[in-house]
Amino acid sequence: MARWCYRHRLVVLLLWVGALLGLGVSASGAGTNYAEVFSLPDTDSKRAYDLMEKAFPERAGDTDTVVWKVDEGSVRDGSVRSRIQPALTEIGRMEGVGAVTDPYGAQGAAQISEDGRIAYAQVTFAEQADAVPKELVQDVVDTAQDAARDGLRVELGGQAITRVQEPPTGTAELVGILAAAVVLFVAFGSLFAMLLPIVVAVFGVGTGMFGTQLLSHVTDVPELASLLSTLIGLGVGIDYALFIVTRHRRGILRGADPEEAAVTALNTSGRAVLFAGGTVCIALAGMLVTNLRFLDGVVIGTTLTVVLSVLAAVTLLPALLGLLGHRVLSRRQRRGLAAEGPRTETASGLAARWSAGVQRRPRSVAAVAVVLMAALAVPLLSLRLGTVDQGNDDASMTTRKAYDLLAEGFGPGFNGPLQVVVDGEASDGLVTGLEETEGVARVAAVPPANGVTVIQVVPTTSPQAEETDRLIDTLREEVIPRAGVEAHVGGVTAVSKDFATVTGERLPLFIGTIIGLGFLLLLLAFRSLVVPLTAAVMNLLAAAASFGVLVAIFQWGYGLDLLGLGQEGPIASFLPIIMLSLLFGLSMDYQVFLVSRMHEEWVHTRDNARAVRVGLAETSRVINSAALIMVCVFLAFVLSGDYGAAMAGVGLAAAVALDAFILRTALVPAVMHLLGKSNWWLPAGLEKRLPHLAVEPKEDAPPGPTGVPDPHGPSSVVHGFVRTADGEPVEGAAVTLLTPGGRRLDRVISLADGAYIVSVPAPGAYLLVVTATPLGSRAAHVTVVDGPLVHDVELTPGEVDAVN
C-alpha cells in the first residue's frame, strides 16, 4: 500500500483534497445539528424533571435570566422601567420563548433585591438550552442589552445564553499548530519535514470534524464531541506522522532511495501507528461501558477523527514523501550524504548518556520518579466532582456578570435554586419543613398544575459549594420522608450532583475495562505478562498524578490567575471518563514505541540490560518530541476561553508530560532494569496458545559486502563494551566483524556508553577488530557457538594489536 501511494502520489493527494473539500462543503451546507442527549435514568433529579415536563410542558425548556442594576435610585423608577419593560415584552413575543416573568407584575416583588438596585426577569424557552436556535438566543441578548444606558447595566445568564457567548473558534487550534511547528522544526531542521506532520494532522482533523458534523444529522452527537475531536486529532495526527517521518529520514541517511525508505518506514513505524491508533480507539470505546448515553456521540466523533488521522498517516504521508524526495532532509544532511555517503544513525549524546545512567542507578531513578509522582497525586485525595457553572466564566463575559449581580442582590444560592417537585398537592408540613431546614434561604411554592406542585428552594450557599450537596441529601433523606409525601429534588444543581454520583459509581468499571483491554493488547504484542502489568500500573500512576495537578489548579486555585481563567470550583464530572480514555490511549502509544524497540533487541541478544538501554536510547528523543508537541497542542486550549475546554487541555497536557518525561523515560526503564529477564516471562502453556503479532517488524538488513541482504538474517550476535584502561567508555569506536579470511561481515560505531553489537551470520570463528582515534586498535579471534557472545574490549593509547 505504501509503495502504491508513493508512486501514485498525485492521485492520492487529489483524493484527500477532494475528500476534505467535499466534506467541508457538505457540512457547511447542512449546518450542525448537535444535540445534548443528557439523561440520568433512575435518579431523583430525572424523576423531578419528568414531573415538571408533565405539569408545565410549555415551561419544561431552559430558563435563563435577564438581570439589571442601577448605579443610583431604584429599578422601580419610571426611567428604568420605561426602558426595561418594552424590551421584556418584545422578548416574550419571540417565537420559541414560552414565557417571561418580570418584576413589575403583581407577583414580581420577590424579583427585586432588598435595596431596590438589582432586579431580574426569567425567560423560559420552549426547549432545552442546546435545542434552542442560536439565532433566537442572540435576538434575546441583543434586545435586552439595547435597553442599557449610562447608570443602567443589563446582563444575561443561563445555559442558552452561554452558547452565544463562546469566543471565536480556531484560536486555540492555530496556536497549538504553531507551537507544534516550532518543535518539529527544531527536531528535523527542515521546513518541508516540519510541514509534513502538520499537513497530515490538518487533513485528518478536518475530515473528522466535517464528518462528525454530518453525522450529527443522523445520530445524537453533542457539541463537546467537536472540541474533543480537534483536541485528540491534532495530537495523534502530528505524533503519528512524526514517528513515520523520523524512520523515513533515517532510512535515507542509511543510503536507501526515498521510495524504499518510505516503504520501510510505513512497514515498520506505520504498522506501529496502526496498532497505536487501534489502542486509542479501544480506549475511547471504553466510555460506552459507563452507559451514559450522551457519551455515545463523543465516542463516535473522537473515534472517527482518530481513524481518519491514522488513515492520513499511512496513505497521504507516503504520497507527500514521494513529492519531496530527498528534500525531507535538511540541507546540511543532504550535503553530508553527498560528500560522505550513507551512514548509520546511532543513538548518541544526551539520550545515550541518560539511558546508560538509568542502567547504572535504576533504584535511585525509580525512587525519585515514584516520590515525584506520588507527591503530585496527593491533591487527588480531595477530588470533588461537580459541574462547571457560569461562576467559573471569564469576568468579562455577560454570563459571569449576571451571575455575580444575582449573587450580590439575592445571595449566592440564588444561582442554583433547587426544585422540590411534588406529585400532588404539597402539604403545609413539607413547606414548613423546607423553611426550617438549615441551609435554606427561602422557599416559594408555585400553584399546582396538572396534579403537580413545584416548590422552589433557594440555598444559602453557592451551587458548587459542598454545603449545597449536603442540603440536597438532607432534603431527600430526611425532610421529604418526614413530610410523608411523594416528592423529588430537581433543578440544575441537583442534576449536577446526581451526574457526579453516577460517574463516580461507574468509574471503577470503566477503568477496569480499558486497563484489561490494554493488558491483552500488550500481552499479544510483547508475549510477556510483566510488561503489560507494568504498563497498567504506570497508567494508573499517570492518571493519579495528572488528576492531582488538575485538583491543585482548578479546585484549589493554584495558578488560575496565571492561566487567565475564572475562579476555582469542582472538577467537571465528565472529565475523568474522557481524560482517562485519552490518557490510556496515548500512554499506550508511547509504551508500544518504547517497548517494541526493547523487545526487538531482547529477541536478538537475550540481554535484558542491553535491550532496555538500547531501546530507551533510540526512542526517548522521538517520544519526548512527540509528547512536547502534544503538550503544546493541549495547553493551547487554555486560550479557547471555555473553562471546561481549558480544564481538559491542562489535564491532558499534564498527563502526557508526566507520562512521557517521567514514566516512559525514567520509571519504566528503571523498573525493567530491576526486574531483569523477568520482564519477558510468559508461561509455556500460554506461549503456545497466543497468536503471534508483530507490532513493528524488524527493518531489512542493509546490504552486506556482496551488496545483497541476507534473507535469513543473523543467527546470533557479538556484543559488549569498548572502554579505556581506566574503565571509561569509548564513544565512536569502529567495531568490525571479519571472516578468518578478512572479508567484512558487519561494522558498527560504539555508543556513548561504549556499547556495541555486531551481527553474526552463523556459528563459527571470526575476527573482531576495534579502532578508535586517538586510541589504538585491538583485534581478537572470537568463536560463536549457539547464542549471543559477550566480548568487552579495552583500548590503550598508541597500541596496535595485529592478528595474523
From TrEMBL:
Transmembrane segments: 174-193, 224-245, 272-292, 298-325, 365-383, 507-526, 538-558, 570-588, 622-639, 645-667
Membrane transport protein MMPL domain sequence ranges: 39-364, 460-681
SUPFAM superfamilies in UniProt: Carboxypeptidase regulatory domain-like (SSF49464), Multidrug efflux transporter AcrB transmembrane domain (SSF82866)
Broad class of where this protein is predominantly found: membrane
Subcellular location field: Cell membrane
Pfam family, one: MMPL
InterPro entries for this protein: CarboxyPept-like_regulatory (IPR008969), MMPL_dom (IPR004869), Mycobact_MmpL (IPR050545)
Membrane topology note: Multi-pass membrane protein
Stated name of the protein: MMPL family transporter
Upper lineage: Bacteria, Bacillati, Actinomycetota, Actinomycetes, Kitasatosporales
